[in-house]
Design a protein that fits this description.
7 strands; Nucleoside Triphosphate Pyrophosphohydrolase; five-stranded mixed β-sheet
Length: 188
Amino acid sequence: MEMRILAAKYGEPVRRWATIETDDYLATQRWRPIPDRRGEVIFIIRQPNGEILLHSKQRYEQPIYRLPTGGIEPSEAVEDALLREVEEETGQSVIIRRFLAILNCHFRRNGSSIPFTSYLFYLESRTRLILPDEDDEPAEFQTMPVQGLPHVAANLRALNGRRKGWGYWRSLAHDLVHDLLGQNSQFN
């Protein structure tokens, strides 16, 4: 029911599925007996300069820029989580332009699988300032044309070490956003 309401308000999302072999690091993030979230929102925020906002967190071992994301709490509505996370992560005032996609991932490990869903939204910033919540982890921001997202995805897939599986998982959304927005002049 929730997805039908969101699709009626913001457009029918594209649906994609992926199966990901889960390494140790990704297992610590997604493989929990009691999930800390029922999914995540991925927000593609078009800035006043026409580019898409990317961020990097200080906890990353190296600068890794990617689309901002945020968790959906177990009893929280997707749209509420989206607006809360945009506020916490960026402080920007936004307009929801399109419900772009639903990315259903299945994390596999030792013969079992855990599902995790990402909801991708295309947003337009109504402000130039980026002022994340003071309680949120510090982040750095940059903007990039949609056409640059394959480069971001390639950088994520090229990660080695403990973030290798995480990088592959994160790359999927960047490829999907580029596929959906890269050639569509309506969004540029």
